[in-house]
Structure formats: C-alpha cells, structure tokens
Amino acid sequence: MLEDGVRRTNPLAFFDDDGRRKRTGTVWTASAHIITAVIGSGVLSLAWAIAQLGWVAGPAVMVLFSAVTYYTSILLAACYRTGDQLTGRRNYTYTQAVRSYLGGMNAKFCALVQYANLFGVAVGYTIAASISMMAVKRSNCYHNSGGKDPCKMNSNVYMISFGIVQIVLSQIPDFKELWWLSIVAAVMSFTYSITGLGLGIAKQMGRLKEA
Q: Helix crossing, 94-102 with 104-145: angle to 10°?
C-alpha cells in the first residue's frame, strides 16, 4: 500500500535511472526464464544422449557443461552494466554488451551469429514439433488398426500447421511480457524429465525381476 502511494505521488518511481520503465521481475520469474532458455528442447534427447555415453561419461559430461554454463553466466552478468557495476549504463541485450566491450564490428558479427542461431533453433523446433505430432497420430493409428495399418503419413502438413501457429502467436503485442509462459515451459521440462526417469527406473526394475 505504501509503495503504491509513493508511486502515485512520484511518477519517477515507475522508471529506472536510465529512463526506462522499472522492471518488475522477481527471482522466480528470472529463474523460470533461465530454465526455459537453457533446457529448451534439449531435454527431449537427454535420455538418448545419456544412453549413448553410458552411466559414467553421461553424468560427467552433464556436470562439465553445467560448470561451463555457470561460468559463462557469471561473465554475462558481469557485462550487464558498462563501467561501474552499480551505476554504469545498462546493456539490455547481448549485442549491446558486445558493442560496449568489444566494439561495433564485433557487435555486427555477434548479431549475425545470433540470428543464424535463432534461425536454426526455429527450424529445429518446427521439425521436433512435427515429429511429436506425427508420433501421437501414428500411435493412435496403430491402436485403432490393431497394428495392421502401416500408418504412413507426411510431415509437411504438421510443419506448415506449426509454422502458421507460430506466425499467429508472434503477432501478440508485448509477447515478452507473458512471463507465465516461461513458468509453464519450465514445469513441462521438469515433468518430462521426471516422467522419463520414472519410466527408466520402472523398466530397469522389470528387467531385474525377470532375471
């Protein structure tokens, strides 16, 4: 209540020291954004990757890349402000941070790499989404036909449908303000991981009983 009263009497309370609208995120929303950005679709192939590496190399590689991610996150956080870490100018994007510390030419190269990465990620998600939708339909087809129908299907329809949905959703104004989407995505990633872990344990227990 007191904070609301201060904001009504002082309009500057709505803005940061650089004139931009004051951020209202919390540790929880930031954590959800980080989890969603770092995990992404990688969790879908995590079980297969660990199976290929084995129980020794698999966890070791995960710990190694966790350390790499943690270290690069520290470096990125240190670049949030240019100059003084408390009063220096904020860098709101990765490209701005690169421009502030490495110059304009490196910023252009960074932007090129970022857009190439976004393009690759978009293609990857489109393919993964179409494969997932096909898997669901194929599973229903097998059950309905009793395994007699080969259930052949074309993935182009699903790719185009997913692309159209993405184009429509991208038209939502201030889409970045929908913070709850990251929380939903983080919960879904954890749910998928826990489900996969449970199925793996159940399968292993079944093998032990058969032995």
A: 150
